[in-house]
Amino acid sequence: MTSFDCGLGGATFAALTAALALATGAATAVSLSVSPAIAARGGIVYIRGNAGACPRGDTVLVLSRAFSRIHTFAGVPVVFAKVGAGGRFHTTARIAERIRIGRYRITARCGGGNLGVLVWFAVGR
Question: Are 79 and 62 in contact (CB under 8 A)?
Answer without folding.
Answer: yes
